[in-house]
Amino acid sequence: QKRRRIWLIFVVGIGFFSLCFLMTSLGGQFSAKRLGDSPFTIRTEVMGGVESRGVLRKISDMLEVILKRMDSLSKLDNTTSSDTRRLDELSSAINRFQPAGLVERIQAIAQNVSNMAVRVEQILQNSIAAGKVRDGSSGQCEVPRDPRYPDCPGKVDWMRARWTSDPCYAFYGVDGSDCSFLIYLSEVEWFCPPLAWRNHTKGQINIYRPTTSPSSLPLSQAAFRTDLSSLLDQVGTGKESLSFMKRRMRRLAPQWGTAAQRLHAKLRQRWREQKKILVHVGFLTEESGDVFSPKVLKGGPLGEMVQWADILTALHVLGHNLKISMSVKELQGFLGVPPGRGSCPLTGPLPFDLIYTDYHGMQQMKQHMGLSLKRHKLVCHIRVIDTFGTEPAYNHEEYATLHGYRSNWGYWNLNTRQYMTMFPHTPDNSFMGFVSEELNDTEKRSIMLNKVNSMAVVYGKEASMWKQGKEGFLQTLHRYMEVHGTVYYETQRPPEVPAFVKNHGLLPQHELQTLLRRAKLFIGFGFPYEGPAPLEAIANGCIYLQPKFRPPHSSLNHEFFRGKPTSREVSSQHPYAEQYIGRPHVMTVDYNNSQEFDSAIREIMRTKVEPYLPYEYTCEGMLERVHAYIQHQDFCSPEAPFPPANSSTKTQWPSGPGPQFVLLPNSSALGWAPNASAPPSWPPLSSLRLLASQDGQSCVEACQRAHLVCEPALFRFVNNKEALRGLAVQCEVVEAEVNHVFPAFSVLRRECGLQKDPLLYSCAGLSPKYRRLCPCRDSRRGQVALCRDCL
């Protein structure tokens, strides 16, 4: 009866605050951050005066009274009649208080209600535990000394000293008693043996063990979608960044629909598993500071929002079950994370197959679900959207710390293919990309007819980009062309922009498209790096001119890249445009050489180009790539071990009578022998091309020079003596080490090294002392991320 009275009080309290919110919504003005928020996640702005503030004081005082009563109740020993009297006091206190007026701080009230819920839970847990003690079923809860649970006594000691350090312990019923510690450590965590007097068939917490299946239900089939209305509703409102993303989704919706039809035909109705996917956009959460949203209409960077909008659309169009989180509270709710600082594990199975987030989201997940990330295989479900890439040496926490690769963003110990980049610049990672608008033949002909041969548009929306030595080459450009800018300003023309530049101000996307379709040249200043704008300009028939960096920019010599988890050298403002597109659409020159710059402008004016968009940046190309990743990449299931060829033990994959590697026709590369068997892999072994790099050359460069792509997933098949023999390498010593350059060999010293830690398989690693063993692969035409047989 007492427990029912407690819950009645709690329900009355909830009803009271719901009434307050209803009055607020009728009498005040409020703006929801996102559709679907509960009343307590809505920021309310109320127009009120002295009366409202008086009501606030009364509410605050009453909340204090309620919390004090709850504190008192949590200390009850369940043996005196004072319990009923105190409960009556609390009930009458709530009933006496009659609200009048408006409420301003709904969020603050919500926190107090949450605290009340925790207190009530503590009381109920105490009541249950105390009842067991009176019944004699639990005794004094002595700490067991069980050799199967050697950590139990130490964990109990830790709980005695630190159980108040995280509210999640109280959420699970811990109240400071040894009984509550043992219940928690045996039923929520797994350090102590189950208690004999506990009922293990009812009410025991279903803890999330390493089993990571999101559901025991039968698998569902994914079906392509062309209607984006439900996705647009999920994205929500309340921020300019979200409005920008939704405008982009609507504008490209017809192209996504056409792309879905094409891919559906290409896959020939192949069965596709529908995945449960959570997308947590960490950099747009209030908890991360969200510096992007306020700058959307002021010339700020849009590349990340472009990519996230396209990722969400691709996942939706592919037919997957999608949930979108734009706040830490939503993240916790979707994952079922207990309130607190992440010290307690998740309960129940993970409800998602995949979680797409960014580095900000990773930090938030670590903060709020740290134990679950450490103890369970949660990280294998995560995909990190990472603009500039993360190399293995920076990703491996211990190795990075010992060898000077520690950075601000790395050290997560993921499989580096879980990082997904904006451009295919880091083969160790997976290339996610984005899309640009694709033109039909009629639009292309119209653009070519209406091009203004002497018109240039400058790539630089912020006035600060026009500073520091731009005058010289702008004057040269002005001698040949009419120069246009799209620099943001509020009232006065930015003084950094020369007077001869026709500045249109910050343009909406459709007006910018119109400008680019008339212009002959799109010229970059050297910053921002690797954005989407150059591809959009090239797709609209512009020639893109950009500066060559001498020496290349990297984390070793440039402030922008310092602290980023990569040693990649950036040779120009947009290396993808330079390396994968090139002339005549892209020209990369030294801006400090006035003669070279002048010559480039004159060549551009003579050159005619058609609008061009690489297939991998079309809607169909992105759908194809994301589909292949979702269906084939699996970082949760352990990879079947591939034993070295010189192993004396018999294996389930015999290498056959001949060698594992054979010389390919008209090539210096080795391929996988047709009669050599191996465990299944993706990409398949039919795509493998084994090469040896030169001294001091990375596998990225070695494969590129052979018009191939380094494939980190295939390192495990070449990390053996058979691969060394196939390349005719003479080894006096073969050792396995933890070294991000291995597998590799030294010709002079006749030393060979194999990789001991698979997390350090690295396409990017290089050393002047070694030549690398490089697992290259072929690629689909226009789709560098996938091999020919990967789809």
UniProtKB/TrEMBL annotation:
EC number, UniProt record: 2.4.1.155
UniProt KW Glycoprotein keyword: yes
Membrane topology designation: Single-pass type II membrane protein
Keywords: Glycoprotein, Glycosyltransferase, Golgi apparatus, Membrane, Signal-anchor, Transferase, Transmembrane, Transmembrane helix
Domain Glycosyltransferase family 18 catalytic: from-to ranges: 168-776
UniProt subcellular location: Golgi apparatus membrane
One GO cellular component term: Golgi membrane
Residues annotated as transmembrane: 7-28
Pathway: Protein modification; protein glycosylation
Gene Ontology molecular function, alphabetical: alpha-1,6-mannosylglycoprotein 6-beta-N-acetylglucosaminyltransferase activity
Keyword Glycosyltransferase: yes
Class in the EC hierarchy, top level: transferase
Any one biological process term the GO annotation gives: protein N-linked glycosylation
Superkingdom in the source lineage: Eukaryota
Recorded family membership: Belongs to the glycosyltransferase 18 family.
Name used for this protein in its record: alpha-1,6-mannosyl-glycoprotein 6-beta-N-acetylglucosaminyltransferase
Organism: Esox lucius (Northern pike)
Gene designation per UniProt: MGAT5B
